[in-house]
Amino acid sequence: MGLIKIFSGEEILAVTLKEKLEEADLTVVIRNNNQANVLPSIATPKAVELFIQEVDFGKAHPIIEAFRLSL
User: Fold this and answer.
1) 50, 5 in Cβ contact below 8 A?
2) What global pTM score does this model have?
3) Is 61 in contact with 3 (CB distance < 8 Å)?
4) For the segment 17-39, what is each residue's pLDDT rounded down to a tens digit?
5) By CB neighbour count within 10 A (0-12 exposed, 13-18 middle, 19+ buried), where does 49 fall?
6) How far apart are alpha carbons 26 and 10 in whole angstroms?
7) CB–CB of 51/6 below 8 Å?
8) What pLDDT score was predicted for residue 37?
9) How many CA atoms lie within 13 A of 55 on its CB side?
10) Are the beta carbons of 22 and 42 closer than 8 angstroms?
11) Listed residue (1, 17, 8, 5) closest to 51, CA to CA
């Protein structure tokens, strides 16, 4: 089984969702492609992405939906 992307967006929202999923004992991988430290003249932050194991999606889905509806 592989990883599936469950979120792509602002870092503050990604961290909040990650914490909620980790409270349910789910492992979350976060990928931040922001190159601001490499190229400080570019001020366009990229979306942060969250991934979980495919087999954990059933357990994560209600948490993701509740988070999405709370926005």
Assistant:
1) yes
2) 0.82
3) no
4) 999 999 999 999 999 876 555 55
5) middle
6) 21
7) yes
8) 54
9) 3
10) no
11) 5
